[in-house]
Structures are given as C-alpha cells and as structure tokens.
Amino acid sequence: MTFPGGTSVSRLSVYSGSPCADGLEGGTPHLHTASTEAYVVIGGHGTLQTLDVNGLRETALSAGTTVWFTPGTIHRAVNRGDLEVVVVMSNAGLPEAGDAVMTFPPEIVADPERYRAAATLPPPPEPGAPPATGEPPAPPTPSEGPAPSAAVTVADVEEAVRRRRELAVEGFLRLADAAAHGDLAPLHRFYDHAIALVRPRAAAWRAIWEGTAAEETRRTAGILDALERGDGAHLRRSALMESLPHDRWGMCGNLRAHDVAHPIVHTPEPS
C-alpha cells in the first residue's frame, strides 16, 4: 500500500552557503511534467521563485507556509536562513522515475545526450554516502555512472551538484528575463524540449501510476461501495506501515527521502 493519496514525502534542507551567479543561495530550477509538488515549511525562511506563462513570481516562505504548484511551473527554492521544508509529491514513483526537467540553456535541453551529460552526477564515493542522482532528472535518466571509486569524494559530488545547479540557474535567468520583457517564446520552446525528453518513458510512468495513485483511488471507491452496503470487512485488514528515511542529494537541497513504495509493515494483513 502506498503513502496516503498515492503521494510521496521527503524532508528538504534547501542548499545554502554557496551563492549562485545572481547572488542567491538555493536550489536547482526545474519543473515537473506530470506531478504536482507541495512545500510545507517547517523552519527558517526563504523565497519560492516560480515561472510560468503568467511570468515570474516570488512567494515568501516561512514556518507554517504551505504552497503547491502544478506541472509546468518552473520552481526554485531560495534559502534566506535555515529553510527546512516537508515536500509532498503527487504520483509517488513518477518524480523518482524522472518526472523533472532542469532549466539548462536551450542548446543543452534540446539535445538528449547533452542533457544527460549535464544532469548526471558522479557515483557516491563509498557505501552509505548519499546517492549521486538525487531527484532524477527527466529522461534520458542519468545513470549513476561507473562503479564507486575511492578517487571520488563527497566534495567531488558536491562540486558536480553545484555545477549542475549553476547551469540550470543560467537557463532559468534567461527564461525569466525574456518573460519579463513580454517574450514567452523561450519558455514555450523549453516546454516543448521538456516533453521531448520525457516522452519515451510515458508508457512506463503509466504503469507506475496505475499501481500507486490510481490504485489508491480505486481502493477508496471500493471502500465507499462497501460502506454503502454496510460492509466493514476492510477495517479488519488494517495495518501499520513505516518508511525509514535515507539521505541523498536533491535538486533543491539535501533530502531525507522515504521509500513509500516499499514500507515496513508492522501489522500485516491477516491471511
């Protein structure tokens, strides 16, 4: 059974300590092509920059703020002081399978091989280190590269994360500047390139969705049917589940993600 509503959840510490070219500290601008994302701010403060066909918007973030944004919304979390967020994603499994496209410059995002090269991070330097890929970018999905090597250090991966972020910020600033001057053509081209990148995996994503969010909807429909009949058999199949956190590098910051697709079941259903 998936996390409630077929969603996924993680805790995010937004990147800090390394300003981008525009002087701001924060994450890698990107969009999701099929999933809606929510931020529930639990500490610190910052700003959410979003860009869509309505232009650039900045939304203040502080403890207690809850915002969410739909597919196609380019977003960038900016840390202005210990920003901590609980991230809830719709369509559990799709973001992990590559439902994101970073705002690299157009000459890169238009070329699947160049996009892959720019998005791929080195492998973790040793067992137990955060996974290299973080939130996977849109297909072609970056591999984790060759087998881990003692020559790769945490600092190497962090530097690769920084370079990837800088490249996405460069493209984001170009899109935002064009939109500020009333020119949405670059944004529309970016959308077209994003769809071209993810299209080869849409069928596989459908299978994931059918087994998570769609299955949860069907399950609820069945429960409502049973309740109308006065049937409470599902109450006798109750269970307690837990998903332990694991750390990884994400596009917006350091993540403590939870594998909601493979929970620990403490009270299994009776046979």
Averaging pLDDT over every residue, what do you get? 89
How many distinct folded domains? 1
Q: What's the CATH topology name?
A: Jelly Rolls
Low-confidence segments, given as residue ranges, are: 129-149
Q: Main sheet?
A: 6 strands, antiparallel
Judging by the overall fold, what is the CATH architecture? Answer: Sandwich
Instruction: Note the run of SSEs as H and E.
Output: EEEEEEEEEHHHHHHEEEE
- Please state the overall shape, judged from the principal axes of the Cα atoms: globular
Find the structural class using helix and strand composition.
alpha+beta
Strand order of the largest sheet: 6-3-8-1-12-11
- What is the C-alpha radius of gyration, as a whole number of Å? 20 Å
Distance between the termini: 16 Å
What is the helix tally?
6
Number of strands: 13
Query: Which bin fits the share of residues in helices?
Result: 25-40%
Q: Can you describe this structure?
A:
By secondary structure, the chain is α+β, with helices and mostly antiparallel strands. The chain has a single domain, classed as Jelly Rolls (Sandwich), CATH 2.60.120.10. Helix content is 30%, strand content 24%. The chain has 6 helices and 13 strands. The strands form 4 sheets. The chain has a 6-stranded antiparallel β-sheet with strand order 6-3-8-1-12-11, with no helix packed on it. The longest helix is centred in the middle third of the chain and has 27 residues, at 154-180. It is globular. The two termini are 16 Å apart.
